[in-house]
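**Entry details**
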Amino acid sequence: MNTEIFSGKAEAYAKARPGYPQAAMNYICSPAQPGSVFADIGAGTGKFTLLLAMSGEQVFAVEPNADMRTQLAVTLQSFPNAKIVDGTAENTTLPDHSVDVITCAQALHWFDPYEFRAECRRIGKQGGLIIAVYNNTPGGSSIAHSKLSTDVFFKNPTVQEFSNPIYYTRKHWLTYMTSHSHDPLPTDSGYTAHIAEMNAVFDRESKDGLLLREVVTKVYSEVLA
């Protein structure tokens, strides 16, 4: 099940996944009026949710995976305006028409697009926004995932891109490359070979001890209808 696919990877995800540039967050939060309610769906370990919470607005962080929610609680422990909710994209458990801005970061491709759209209509206020965010790494799988999911889910989105370059040390790179759903866990038979391959990538592509990935943060937004 998609809700369990990141079990055992929450710590690596929290430590090594790219964050989001301030310019993108300013763009995302700027349409919201004071007192707006955000719902971050598939919040994971809170990489994106934390930045929403820092705005001071009320945030519901919806996450179905228990391992991820444990890390999410650590991330959001200093933000009483953020409430963690055990729910899925298709069944958030949030009240009807209670949310002004619905967000999902690095997550839309895991959702059933039609059931999620129906749930957004149920929890979203009239005229509210739905926003999907992807950190796209050149050559990475998220480019295909983001295009496939956004093409299906959105009808006529506004799309903005923000530069988000990430520099990895070897340790950071290896942690990052164990954080994806398809990466083997240390207990898996292919783990040693995977780490050897990722070390070879670092040796080949790094410069002065750092490996650069020119990540682009892509933001899709649309008025809920």
About this structure: The chain is about 35% helix and 25% strand.
